[in-house]
Amino acid sequence: MPADRPATLAAWLRTRSDAQLAALLAARPDVARPAPSDVVALASRLAVPVSVDRALDDLDAATLQVLDVVLLAPTDGVEAAEVVAALSGLPEGVVAAAVERLTTRALLWGEDVVHAPDQVRRGVRHPAGLGRRAAELRVTLPADLPAAVAALEPAERQVLERLAADRPVGHLPETGSGGAATPARRLLQAGLLARIDALNVELPREIGLLLRGDLPYGPPRVEPTPAVVERDPAVVDRQAAGAALESVGRIGELLAVLEEEPAGLLRSGGVAVRDRKRLAKALTVSEDDAGWLLELAFAAGLLDVGGPHRDEWLPTRGYDVWREQPLADRWAALAAGWLESTRLPSLVGQRDVAGKGVNALSPDLVRHTAPSIRRSALDALAGYPPGRGLAPDDLVGLLRWRTPRRGDRLAPVPDMLAEAARIGVLVGGVLSTGGRGLLVRGEEGAADGMQGLLPEPVDHVLAQPDLTLVAPGPLVAGLADTLAVVADVESSGGATVFRVSEGSVRRALDAGWSATDLHDFLARASRTPIPQSLDYLVDDVARQHGRLRVGSIECYVRSDDHGLLSQVLGDRRTASAELRRLAPGVLVSGLGADEVLTVLRSAGYAPAGESAGGAVLTRPPARPRAAGRRAGLPAAAAARPLTPAEAAATVREIRAGDAALAARPATPVRQVPGVTTAGTLEVLSRAIRDGLPVWLGYVDAQGSGSQRVVQPVSLAGGFLQGWDERRQESRTFAVHRITSVALVEEEAPAAGNG
Q1: Gap between the Cα atoms of 389 and 597, Å rounded
Q2: pLDDT at residue 660 above 90?
Q3: Is 130 exposed, middle or buried (0-12, 13-18, 19+ CB in 10 A)?
Q4: What is d(CA 48, CA 743) in angstroms, rounded to the nearest whole number?
């Protein structure tokens, strides 16, 4: 290697400009946090296997094929021109861009001659889909390998060609029928396959290259050009708005039902099948749809485990805020929660490895790769202009080319696209405006994209002669709350139909309403005249309500209508209330008042609770809440994208750390932490007096040691004030934590571009 060429990855990194180092850190943010102390530390982090695998996983098929050329080269370094010549099937610009992409990520290093770091070689187990060399597999190949391969039977050659295609490792089958050796076993005996364990064999690289002929690296991995789906963007947005409105409405109905009767938490986690069936019946949807709605509400942070013993699924405190927001913001919260969720709702109802059905909200649905898969699929669609997209199969094919090392994780993509269509992010393979905003700016962008497409909430209903109240659009939260007490949802959609029944009127009376309150509310809420039949229903139920009074003895039932009490006492349906006559107008029970009220109401009576003073007790609607959290886990700090400012600051720290190493003197003044020596004070005082920088060894409060170049400013009270060249900020150092100090020689290199 010429003397002017860097000999190691660290030496090459020192030759890179600040902009190139910043691009490296932006492409591999996991190596930037915390900031490496110097270039050597950066090179060490770039070689960590997990970081290498993560960087390789982000490469497309063409870039990986370019990397394969370098990995399969007989020598360590490969001329850039040789890489282009080896892949004549790929456009030269594609190869050059791939080399640039690999060097930017330090998966290759060098300029005219590129090298692959050892950890990258270990990270790519089978470059170009070829096996290891025969020598590495400890196999002795025939002297005339082409002749030996040409003499094989068709079945044996077919085995070799299949292994030479893209995966050199195969399963060794058992013996054939009648105990005859299978083609694979005959190849193993002939020395054309290598056994790597009891069940698997590997094809030596030399045989794979022979069978591939003029395409040693396989067919050119050209980016696919799938057929584009075209739709009118305005139609897409209108259909997306319809799906969004449906999702918001259904989630509101689901949480209203769970507010009245929470779902139980299974010991294994999740919601029981019986609760899912109950919710499906209440919402008039299928059980699969009920499971999807539960998952969506949980992903948006509107549903969680709560209650006195944290054993129930309840609406969260965030639900109260959510339901007061504009429709676009409510939808954006659902869409963002779905995008960030680490769960796969499509697995609800499927069988696990033990053959047991997977419940909604179960821990078995967690897949930590789900957010990245969703985003990669939607990002691929976002690359097309508005109104254009891809069919699911074509999108999966494109993703397999863009991230081939993640191909085995793409199975859930079709289900994810179906979920995106259900909430209005996607319509027929085309992103909606709200979906594009979601990818770019999260919830805020999603809400902006849906603005003007969703109807404004209405504050009125239309009373009908058949005892129904029709809401011509989504209702404001206050009116929706009141109607939930006074009426029952009969059908939902663009217009929600509420039905007023004897049971719903009784429920309102139990909550403390009077007949006059109900008449006034209906008159205010309805834009149409109140039908006479509805007024009669309210008055009839109100006359019956409270004729029976229930209190605590444990407990009593009293009424001025003695015949009614006799009827109650003789009714078989009230036997479970354990009533007995105490006086002509009084019955008592050993059960609590709530239990007796429940039995009498289920038997068709209309009792009212009573206080010790004889006043009617109302039942304020309970609003239990869970604390709440987002189901989608926040991205790890190491994986969070690096901002340009963060990248620039990290580069400055690396440069300053390199300068500190270069400026480190051979014999610095050393001291034991906690014991300040006269030599340390003398060097620091001289540096302050003469304005000289010092090389400082320091141990922080956590016991971590570091070295840095500091420009001392003052020394007083046991503390040194100075400018930290590495962090580019003013710092305070406790003198007793200084481990070594020395003046930086004037000829020592300063921090710069390396």
Answers
A1: 59
A2: no
A3: buried
A4: 35
- Name the amino acid, one letter, at 363: P
Helices (H), 383-494: 392-402, 413-423, 433-450, 477-486
Arithmetic mean of pLDDT, 455-478? 87
Residues 6+ apart with CB under 8 A from 512: 618, 619, 620
Distance CA 78, CA 71 (A): 9
At 494, give phi and psi (nearest 5°): -60, -40
Q: What is the pLDDT of residues 707-731, one digit of tens each?
A: 778 889 888 878 899 988 777 778 8
Dump the DSSP string for 365-391.
GB-TTHHHHHHHHHHHHHTSPTTEE--
- Taken in order 488, 490, 496, 502, the sign of the CA dihedral is negative
* Identity at 673, one-letter amino acid code: P
Residue-level pLDDT at 493? 67
Structure tokens at 248: 């918001």
If we measure between CA atoms, which residue out of 342, 383, 86 comes closest to residue 209? 86
Q: Quote the radius of gyration of the chain (alpha carbons, Å).
A: 37
User: Which of residues 535 and 707 earns the better pLDDT score?
Assistant: 535
| Cα separation, 241 vs 27, whole angstroms | 36
Q: Contact 387/236 with Cβ under 8 angstroms?
A: yes
Peptide bond into 2 cis (omega under 30): no
DSSP letter for each residue of 587-618: EEESS-HHHHHHHHHHTT--EEEE-TTSPEE-
Return the closest-CA partner of residue 494 out of 477, 472, 461: 472
What does the buried/exposed string (b/e) look like for 424-449 if buried means 16 or more CB atoms within 10 Å of the residue's CB? bbbbebbbbbbbbbbbeeebebbbbb
In this prediction the pTM is 0.73
3-state secondary structure (DSSP) of residue 332: helix
Contact 46, 28 (CB under 8 A): yes
CB 639 within 8 A of CB 633: no
How are the residues of the chain apportioned to helix, strand and coil, as percentages rounded to the nearest 5?
Answer: 45, 15, 35
Backbone angles phi, psi at 487, to 5 degrees: -145, 170
CA dist., res. 374 & res. 18, Å (int): 34
Question: Which backbone phi and psi does 720 adopt, to 5 degrees?
Answer: -105, 125
∠50-54-59 over CA atoms, to 5°? Answer: 150
Residues with Cβ within 8 Å of residue 207, at least 6 apart in sequence: 141, 145, 149, 160, 164, 192
Strands (DSSP E) along 284-385, which ranges? 303-306, 312-315
User: How many other CB atoms sit within 10 Å of the CB of residue 188?
Assistant: 17
With residue 280 as reference, give the H or E element that holds it.
Answer: helix 273-283
Q: Token pair of 529, please?
A: 């005249």
d(CA 673, CA 741): 12
Quote the tokens at residue 34: 């915390």
